[in-house]
Write a structure and sequence with these properties.
It is a single chain. By secondary structure, the chain is mainly alpha-helical. It contains 10 helices and 6 strands. The protein has 2 domains: 148 residues, no CATH class; 85 residues, 2-Layer Sandwich (Alpha-Beta Plaits), CATH 3.30.70. Bound molecules: iron/sulfur cluster (2 copies).
């Protein structure tokens, strides 16, 4: 697989399955066969993932990227051997950091839900092509990633304002809006990738979508209480 195809989510999944270390072997920078230069993206992704690991208390040296051509079997062997040595030195995932199994599982699950958010927040940096490793290493700072963790956004549909026009449901790229005719719409927080499209799409006269920063969205209305009262009908009754 081209290193540019390796997604943050793939690396996270490996750790979630209990793998102690993830090694990426990529083509030399500047030698990608494609105009996309995916190996730069892989490098940026690895540095972002290292900062995420630091935030959740895991040793960032558990993930590594090295560059080599298809003709450099010796470089591949030496790189992998050195990486394996390093990971053995750190110890098993979680145990090496003094994190118990349940706590580790819950931290990784939490990060798993935020992968689309991190990709979106850092999308410009993730595709940047910097001059050298030193610059790449400085691409993401710990403070910046810590801040992104503390300012995670959620989107919430205010049941008192939603008029079930279905615009947000049609525009949501991942079908995270639970939509039914004449029913208050609800965002499935586990599916939502926090792109903000529903906030932009909700007609200003309704203004039903709210962006919440740094705290979870309120619980959704129970299904049997989602029938809406049209604003126009409310006025007629008054
Ligand atoms: S923020 Fe994006 S993904 Fe989440 S519900 Fe709104 S449109 Fe869908
Ligand atoms: S766009 Fe706004 S009013 Fe329309 S269904 Fe979505 S949240 Fe409700």
């Amino acid at each position: 697989m081209c290193s540019g195809r390796v997604d943050l989510g793939f690396v996270l999944r490996a750790f979630s399955k209990g793998i102690d270390g993830v090694f990426l072997g990529a083509c030399h920078l500047g030698e990608c066969n494609y105009i996309t230069h995916g190996n730069y993206q892989a490098l940026n992704m690895v540095y972002l993932f290292k900062k995420i690991m630091e935030h959740i208390g895991l040793n960032p040296e558990r993930v590594r990227i090295n560059f080599m051509s298809g003709a450099e079997a010796n470089v591949f062997t030496e790189s992998v051997n050195d990486f394996v040595r390093k990971v053995k030195e750190i110890g098993p995932l979680g145990k090496g950091e003094g994190i118990d199994k349940d706590e580790l599982k819950s931290r990784l699950e939490e990060v798993g839900k935020l992968i689309p958010y991190f990709k979106m927040m850092n999308r410009q940096k993730l595709v940047s092509r910097l001059a050298n490793h030193e610059e790449c290493e400085r691409l993401f700072t710990k403070d910046e990633i810590d801040r992104q963790f503390s300012e995670v956004v959620s989107y919430y549909i205010d049941p008192a304002k939603c008029q079930a026009c279905m615009t947000c449901a049609r525009r949501c790229p991942v079908e995270a809006v639970i939509s039914a005719k004449n029913q208050v719409h609800v965002i499935d927080q586990d599916k939502c990738i926090k792109c903000g499209t529903c906030l932009e799409a909700c007609p200003p006269r309704f203004g039903a979508v709210t962006k919440i920063i740094g705290e979870p969205a309120p619980a959704p209305l129970p299904e049997d209480q989602r029938a809406i009262v049209r604003k126009t009908k409310e006025k007629e009754v008054a």
